[in-house]
Structure formats: C-alpha cells, structure tokens
C-alpha cells in the first residue's frame, strides 16, 4: 500500500511501469481496490503510470464536504507535487476527464498532453447524465439503469437475455458500498460532478488533446462529446463503436490512446520527471 501526503489530504495511490510520467484520473465512485480499474489500461510499457483514489473515495482521507471540481484538480496537481512529477501526460476517464479539464485550465504547465475519454464540458456544451438522480434507487434498480445508460443498445429485452451482466453490476456496486468508509464522499463527488462547467474556459486549453467517445454512450452523449472537442483548440476527436466503456469492445481505441500519448516530445527524447 502506498500513500502520499499533500497539503490537504493523505492520498492512496498506485504506480507501475517505467518511463515518462502518465497520470490517470479515474471516474465516478472509483476505488483502486475494485478490479478491474484504470491501472489495467496497457500503458505501463510506455510510461510510469500513476493513479490515485480521489478525495472521499477509496483509501484516500475524506475531508468534510462540499467538494468542488477545482478541489479535484488541485488534488491532482498536489499529488504530482508530492511525487515530484513536474509535468505529465494526463488521461482522464469520465469524471476524471472533467477533473483533467480543470487541471489543464488551473495548472496548464503540469499537462504536456491530455486524453479525455467519455466525458463532457458541462454548461452550454452539454453535461453527462446526472448520476446523482439515481442515488435513491435500490441497488438492483440503479444497476439496471446504469447498464442501460452505459450502452444505449442495452434495453430491458437485452437485459433479460443477459442476466449475468446485471448480477455482475449489482455485485460490483455492493462491493463498492462495503468498501466505502465515507459514503458522504461519494455523494459529495456526485454533487461536484453536477456542477461541472468548463465550457466558456475551454478555448484556454493549449495542450494537445485527444477526445474519444462511444457511439452508444448514454452517459457522455456523442453530441456533447463532439461539442467538447469543437471548443478546445486543435483537439482531435474520434468515436468508437461502443458504450461508455467503449475501449472494452473497440481495441483500436487503446491503440490510438497509446499512439497519442507517446507522441509527447518528452517521451521521444526519453526524458522523465518522476
């Protein structure tokens, strides 16, 4: 187990691989004790990959709510400071993509290039599905809704023919609830997520940016993902045949991610900051 102390938090993190630094910022409710997780992305042969439990989640200490998106971005920069990472390629997934946008805006010198998967800008650009609206549902109801949102092709008829998918989703959610030592942290993350809005500031992002989405994503809808890419200068956009976790069914997404991140000039020169 590895913890790092920032000015405001004791943060649990994992690190693997060798090479220039890559910081992965994970999605809603993520806990590195739950497998699979973002550390399973095949990047360790190219980078020293770091991921961490965000405030209120996993084994990271939970400060009192409320939380704001700026807090999550500042946490990411503080983790980099504590690990002596001057700048890195950043990979943000879903909620982590929202945090990555804030990080690139608040701490632009820390981000050499950025990949944003299945995420949105908020505001006039469009928001991801309001997951906080599902909080009062039963575990089974919430699992059912999430499966349908994760891939819009998965309707009730599909679910009847794939009962194991619902069972696995429910089991993962129950496991997450059992592991959680601070349920208020998860609720505070959902509240911060609901307030995410980088739309008007997106033109200030100056780093190379790769944005990817799933054609059947009901959480980060394709039209909102498209608007996000259109607002960031010189962003590259690509859609893949899949849902919110499109890389599980579209291996080209992983190949494109590896290519984009490894095009960083520090990677080509073999430099590291960690």
Overview of this protein structure:
The protein has 274 residues and is of the alpha/beta class. It has a single domain (3-129, 182-269), classed as Alpha/Beta hydrolase fold, catalytic domain (Rossmann fold), CATH 3.40.50. The chain is built from 9 helices and 8 strands. It has an 8-stranded mixed sheet, sandwiched between helices. Helix 2 links the parallel strand 5 and strand 6 (111-117). Helix 1 (69-82) packs across helix 2 (95-106) and helix 3 (139-150) crosses helix 5.
Termini, distance in Å?
19 Å
Number of domains: 1
Please outline the major beta sheet. Answer: 8 strands, mixed
- State the share of residues found in helices, binned by percent: 25-40%
* Whole-angstrom Rg: 18 Å
Contiguous helical run count? 9
Q: In what order do the strands lie side by side in the largest sheet?
A: 1-2-4-3-5-6-7-8
Shape: globular
Structural class: alpha/beta
Mean residue pLDDT:
94
- CATH class descriptor name: Alpha Beta
Strand content: 15-25%
CATH superfamily: Alpha/Beta hydrolase fold, catalytic domain
Q: Output the CATH topology.
A: Rossmann fold
CATH architecture level-2 label = 3-Layer(aba) Sandwich
């Amino acid at each position: 187990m590895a913890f790092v102390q920032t000015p405001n938090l004791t943060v649990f993190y994992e690190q693997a691989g060798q090479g220039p630094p890559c910081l992965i910022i994970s999605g809603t409710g993520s806990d590195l004790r739950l497998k699979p997780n973002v550390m399973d992305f095949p990047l360790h042969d190219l980078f020293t990959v770091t991921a961490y439990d965000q405030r209120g989640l996993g084994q990271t200490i939970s400060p009192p709510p409320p939380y704001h998106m700026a807090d999550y971005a500042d946490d990411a920069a503080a983790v980099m400071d504590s690990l002596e990472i001057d700048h890195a390629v950043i990979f943000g997934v879903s909620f982590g993509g929202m945090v990555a946008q804030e990080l690139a805006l608040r701490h632009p010198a820390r981000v050499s290039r950025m990949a944003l998967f299945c995420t949105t800008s908020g505001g006039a650009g469009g928001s991801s599905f309001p997951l906080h609206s599902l909080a009062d549902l039963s575990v089974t109801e919430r699992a059912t809704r999430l499966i349908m949102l994760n891939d819009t092709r998965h309707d009730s008829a599909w679910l009847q023919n794939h009962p194991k998918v619902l069972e696995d989703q429910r089991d993962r959610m129950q496991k997450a609830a059992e592991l959680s030592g601070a349920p208020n942290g998860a609720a505070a993350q959902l509240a911060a997520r609901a307030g995410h809005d980088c739309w008007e500031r997106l033109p200030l992002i100056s780093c190379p940016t790769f944005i990817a989405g799933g054609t059947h994503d009901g959480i980060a809808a394709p039209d909102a993902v498209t608007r996000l890419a259109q607002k960031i200068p010189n962003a590259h956009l690509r859609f893949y045949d899949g849902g919110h976790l499109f890389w599980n069914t579209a291996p080209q997404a992983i190949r494109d991610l590896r290519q984009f991140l490894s095009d960083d000039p520090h990677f080509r020169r073999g430099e590291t900051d960690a």
